[in-house]
């Protein structure tokens, strides 16, 4: 059984853990930790970056059974207990970008748009909605920026619970509720410098490019 610490605590950046498993995949060695702090690539969010015993983690993937495996630089194969560390500033940045993605989605849903896809990679972060009507790019960009910043200022708590079916449910304030397995800030006021980077219309979609930071603490 692997404990997914990244799901319960965004701000756990360091953990000692035993090795749960080592597997070979396409000629590479991948390890799984009993106490896992690494977020795997998925749901529009990149993998966490970090180290195991000082050796760089270069890829993080989750298998069909939900076990998260790490690929280490140079095929390093640790034994027994290890020290796992993720890049703190990168984790905080991704949590801020990811949470802001929920806020954009919520603001757009209020305008009648439906979710299409997302990407929370720094400098490429965007939320893509299905286009439901003609839009003025400037007006909609200003509207999203203003509404998201209003939610940010209110400092709504961001909490995670599980449904009866075992799905993780993220609640922001009282009204924003999404199924999600990503990492989030504790409250919306931990997001800062939110701004719209671009608004693009492509075929039947509206792509909202954005950027933001995490507060210092
Ligand atoms: Zn999320």
UniProtKB/TrEMBL annotation:
Cofactors (names): Zn(2+)
One of the record's GO molecular function terms: aminoacyl-tRNA ligase activity
Protein name: Threonyl/alanyl tRNA synthetase SAD domain-containing protein
Domain (Threonyl/alanyl tRNA synthetase SAD): residue spans on this chain: 167-203
Pfam family name, one: tRNA_SAD
SUPFAM superfamilies noted in UniProt: ThrRS/AlaRS common domain, Translation proteins
GO biological process: tRNA aminoacylation
Organism: marine sediment metagenome
